[in-house]
Amino acid sequence: EAGVAQSPRYKIIEKRQSVAFWCNPISGHATLYWYQQILGQGPKLLIQFQNNGVVDDSQLPKDRFSAERLKGVDSTLKIQPAKLEDSAVYLCASSLADRDTQYFGPGTRLTVL
Amino acid sequence: GNSVTQMEGPVTLSEEAFLTINCTYTATGYPSLFWYVQYPGEGLQLLLKATKADDKGSNKGFEATYRKETTSFHLEKGSVQVSDSAVYFCALKEGGSQGNLIFGKGTKLSVKP
Q1: Residue A65 pLDDT > 80, yes or no?
Q2: How far is B97 from chain A (nearest CA, A)?
Q3: Which of A98, A108, A109 would best serve as a mutation to test chain B binding (most B beta carbons within 10 A)?
Q4: Which of A88-97, B5-14, B94-103 is the least confident region?
Q5: How big is the CA angle at A94 (ends B104 and A84), to the nearest 5 degrees?
Q6: In the predicted model, what is the mean pLDDT of chain B?
Q7: Which residues of A touch B103 (CB under 8 A)?
Q8: Which residue of B has its CA nearest to A103?
Q9: CB A54, CB A31: distance < 8 Å
Q10: CB contact under 8 A, A43 and B98
Q11: If you average pLDDT over residues B25-37, what whole number do you get?
């Protein structure tokens, strides 16, 4: 069974630029999560989707971050404009349902200069 | 609010040494508890979990027991190997249909031959 796929793996941008990350969850997984992991800290949930609807986006900085999950499968996370403090690893995870084990992708490491 | 506290790292051990990584939590209700592992260059992987008090999770020689009276979920392994070198994250998941994972800051383990 294929795991959670993410791209790109690495991205370097300058502040005030925009960037987008892509995630393809495990086939059949209804729930998809985006986490932000700052160096030296544990992952923090940004947004949770159930199919193509948002379940929880309370910690998403909505003035600059946006996410969508069209057709309830792939998802994109966008940052516009980026700030220095957005430098982090962005992790995507999926699960069959909300109560089930979450499976994580390899992450996208973002560096904002 | 809910939170997870892990012992500070890094932890350096010799091969075949005994490992303990402490984890305590604060939660309302009865959360599920998890240990995730992140090997260098890879995504988070579920190591073990426990869903109720006194449950013991185990996998790959690692064990952790859900202790409600001490609000703890310490990770142990009797004899570590070089291949166990990784970052270990303790996490809790609140109950209910919209619970999400809350992670500790992680503990880096290095095992020397």
Answers
A1: yes
A2: 6
A3: A98
A4: B94-103
A5: 55
A6: 92
A7: 42-44
A8: B45
A9: no
A10: no
A11: 91
Cβ contact B22:B104 at 8 Å: no
Kindly identify which residue of chain B lies nearest to residue A56, measuring between CA atoms: B98
Q: Where are the alpha helices (DSSP H) in B44-96?
A: none
Residue B52 contacts A, CB cutoff 8 Å? no
What is the maximal distance between C-alpha atoms in chain A?
39
Residues 6 or more apart whose CB falls under 8 angstroms from that of B13 comprise B19, B80, B109, B110, B111, B112
Which residues in chain B have their CB less than 8 angstroms from residue A4's CB? 43
Note the pLDDT of residue B8: 84
Q: What is the rounded CA–CA span in Å between residue A8 and residue A23?
A: 9
Q: In angstroms, rounded to a whole number, what is the distance separating the alpha carbons of residues B79 and A83?
A: 44
pLDDT tier for residue A106 given thresholds of 50, 70 and 90: very high
User: Under DSSP, is residue A71 helix (H, G, I), strand (E, B) or coil?
Assistant: helix
